[in-house]
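Figure 2 data, in text form.
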Amino acid sequence: MSTQITVEVVYATPEVQVLLSVILPSNSTVADALRESGLPKQFQKVDFDQLQAGIWGNTVTHDHAVLDGDRVEFYRPLQLDPKEARRQLASLGLTMGKVVKG
């Protein structure tokens, strides 16, 4: 059994998307992957400890163990509640999503 694993660490802002590959000991956690990625240094104004984390779109805690090949994602808070966004669009006579012509 390998003593090291490789995981991807992902974070995105409206302006930039970052995907980093990091090598970790096999008993590592989401927090370890974050620390090794260097994202907190690259995005110093972001409090990553307060962000929701996920692996392949499924939310996990920062102490969750990571496996070889995992994609660790950090989710920014929503800027606008989806229901409120729909209300605002509806007030303008618009809708979200695809328009079906028929």
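Caption note: The chain has one domain: 4-91.
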